[in-house]
Amino acid sequence: MAAGIGLIPGIAQAAGPAAPAAPAAPAAPAAQGAPATGANPDAARKTKGKTFTSPADRTVVTTPSGAKAGGTARAQGAQEVPDPHISIYLDATTPTAHSIDLRSHIITWDDAEVEAVVSWGDGTTDTYSAALAGFRGDARNVTHTYAAVGSYDVKVTVKHAASGAEAVNELKFVTDGTEFTAHEPTRLLDTRSGLGAARAKVGARSSVALKVAGAAKVPAGVGSVVLNVTATNTAGAGHISVGKTKELTETAETSNLNFVAGQTAANLVIAPVGEDGYVHLFNAGWEPVDLIADVTGSFKATPAAGYGSVTQTRVVDTRAGVGTAKGQVPGYGTFGVEIAGRGGVPKGATAVALNLTATNPRSAGHLSAYPSGQAAPVTSNLNFTAGQTIANAVIVPIGADGKITVRNGSWDPADVVVDVVGYYSPDSRSAFSSAWVPMRLLDTRKDRSWGLRPAGPVPARKAEVMRFESDTKTPRVDGWALNTTVTNTRGNGFLSVTPDPNFWSDYQNGTAITPQRPVSSALNWTAGTTVPNLVQTPAGKGAIIDFWNQGWEDVDLLVDLVGYYQTI
Question: What is the pTM (predicted TM-score) of this model?
C-alpha cells in the first residue's frame, strides 16, 4: 500500500506492540507507488529543537563617556546626556543542525535611528539599521549557518544614533547538530550483576536510571549516546523505551525493543541524554526483566566525526564467500572484515554503521562486532536461537588497520551477513540532530492523520512509500535514523528499506517509475513475532524512502523518527 506520508505532528499513537488490537480491514490496496493525497509536513521540522534566550533586563547600555546608563541621566562634564533607555531581547532556535535563527527585539523610549551589529561568535558579523518608533521597537529574525558544530557566544550591539550610546545583550548558543566519537564496546549496565544499577530485575512498569556521561570513556556534556540494549530473563511479553528523562520515557508512546517470555532480545538505540548525564530505560511489560546496555559511541556538539550515508551494501556473506571464507563461522570463531575503502566507507573513517545478521545457527548464541587488534569484549550485538535468522544494527569503531572483527559467541557454527549502511569520518560535517523523544511517523494499525492513509497492513511483496520532507528536489537531510518495527506477522519474511528514485511530483502526475526490488534486509521475522531494528538510511532525490515487505503475507509496520543527519 502506498503511503504518501502526511507526517503526524508531535508524538503519535502507541508503539509497544504488546498484544496489539487486530487492525481494521484495509481498503483495497493501491498499486505500488501510487501515493495518497494531501499535504505533507516536514519530518525534520517536527522534532523539538533547542531554544536559547537572553531577556531584555540583561541589556548593558554604555554612554559615549563610557559610563553605564541606567534609569537616570548620566553627566558628561557640564552636559547631561539623556538615558536612551535601550533594551534588547534575544531569542534563538535551531532550524537545522548547523544554523541559528536569532530573533532580536530592540526597544527605545523615543523615536530613534539605530544600527545593530550581530556578532555570531565565529568571527563573522551581520549589520542592519532600523528606525524605531518608540515602544513599538524593531523585531526581526536573522539567520546564520556555522561551518562547524559547537558552542558560540552570540552578541548583539545596538548604537543609538542621537546619543551615541551603545547597548549590548548576548547569549550562549549551542548547535543542534552533534558529531560522533567512537567508543570501544563497553558494558555500562547489567542488572544481573549490579553493574550500573541495583542487582535486581527492573520491575514491571518501572524504569532504571543509567549514568552515561562520564561513564567509561563517554565525555561529559554528550547530547546522545549509542547503546546496544538487551532484555533477558523475560517472564512475559513487553517492550523497552529509552529516553532522556524518567517522565518522558515512562510516558513515551514509542518503543525501542520488543520481547516475549523466555526471549533474549537486543536492539541498537541512539538515545538522547538528559542534562544530568543520565538515560532512563523503562520496562513497559507486566513482568520484571533484566536489562543490559553496551555503549559504542556518543554524540556531542564539538567537531569530531560526521556521518556519511551510503546505500546499503553487502560486504560479508559467509554463505557465498563474500568478504571472507565461504562456510559457517565455527563456534567461538572470529573473522576480520576489511571496512575502510569498501562499501562506500572511505579511508580514515573512525566508525562504521552496519546491519549485522546471523542465519542458519545450529544452536543459541550471540554475535559481537568490535575493532580489529583488540581482545573480544564481553559485550554482544545480537542474540539468536537455533535455526533463527535475526538482524541488528551496529555502530562499531574501525581498527587502526581499517578492519573490524566479528565473533560467533556460540558453541556451534553459524552463517553471518554484514551490510554497510553508513560511516563516521573526521572529513564529514554531517551532524546528528536527535528527536526530543522518538516520534511516530507511521503505524499501519491506525488511520493516518488527515485521512491520508487508512489503517491496514503493508501488502505482501509491496512497498510503503513515505515522503520525509516537503515536496523537494534538493533534500536538506543526508540520512535518517529510524526505529522500524513489524508486527502481526503471519509468515516468514524480511523488511528492506531503500531510497526511492522518484520525486513526489512524479507520483502525483503518474510518471513515477517502479522502484527496483532490493535484496538486502533491515530486519527478519517469523510468523507471530514482533521485531524491531534501528535503520539508518538516506532518502532518495525527492526525500522519499521505500519500506518493502519482502514476505508473502501482509504485515503491520511502525516507523519512529529517532533523528537525522544534516550538513547544513
Answer: 0.89
